[in-house]
Amino acid sequence: DVTEIEEKEAQAKQEEQIMKEQELSNLLHEKRYLKALGLAISLDRPHTVLTVVKAILREPEGRRRLEENLVRLRKDQKEAVLAFLVTWNTNSRNCHEAQAVLETLLKHEAPDSLLQFSGIKPAVESLLPYT
Q1: Which letter does DSSP use for residue 117 in this model?
Q2: Which is nearest to 126 in space by CA: 74, 97, 76, 91?
Q3: Regions of the chain where pLDDT drops below 50
Q4: Nearest to 54 by CA among 103, 101, 105
Q5: Nearest to 54 by CA among 99, 22, 87
Q6: What is the pLDDT of residue 4?
Q7: For 60-71, what is the HEC assignment?
Q8: Alpha carbons within 13 A on the beta-carbon side of 9
Q9: How many CB atoms lie within 10 A of CB 73?
Q10: Nearest to residue 86, comparing CAs of 42, 35, 51, 131?
Q11: 89 close to 95: Cβ distance less than 8 angstroms
Q12: Dihedral (C-alpha) 49, 55, 60, 64: value to the nearest 10 degrees?
């Protein structure tokens, strides 16, 4: 019978998830946006990433701070943000943030580098009608 072991593993995962959520909340409160972005991306939370982006843009010189944070992300994190912004861009309430992130990616990534992103073709095809 492995039921007890599976229950303990599920409980451990749930506790870890709660701790990460609390850490994310603390990072946002402390305005440590780079770590908050990384954690939200690792948790695969597009809405939370959007919340972080909105918080950054509300800061004085928000565009510059957004650039500073996005440029420092790893390639896989940038790919995830690109996938997230495709969805954000379809909603008029979030399109400005999506365009700000897209502008930063296009400005700071070389075209050859962008072509290496996984899912770049469908992302561009999805962005064109709304951009």
Answers
A1: S
A2: 91
A3: none
A4: 101
A5: 99
A6: 86
A7: CCHHHHHHHHHH
A8: 5
A9: 17
A10: 131
A11: yes
A12: 0
Residues 6+ apart with CB under 8 A from 72: 34
Helix, strand, coil % (nearest 5) of the chain?
Answer: 80, 0, 20
Token digits of residue 127: 């962005």
Considering the entire predicted model, what is its pTM?
Answer: 0.83
State the Cα–Cα distance between residues 92 and 6, nearest whole angstrom. Answer: 43
Can you tell me the distance from the alpha carbon of 77 to that of 109, in angstroms, rounded to the nearest whole number? Answer: 13
Q: Which helix (H) or strand (E) holds 99?
A: helix 95-108
pLDDT digits (tens, 9 = 90+) for 38-52: 999 988 989 999 999
Q: Which residues of 6-37 are buried (b: 16+ CB within 10 A; e: fewer)?
A: eeeeeeeeeeeeeeeeeebeebbeeeebbbbb
- pLDDT at residue 1, as a whole number: 66
- Alpha-carbon distance of 42 to 37, in angstroms, equals 9
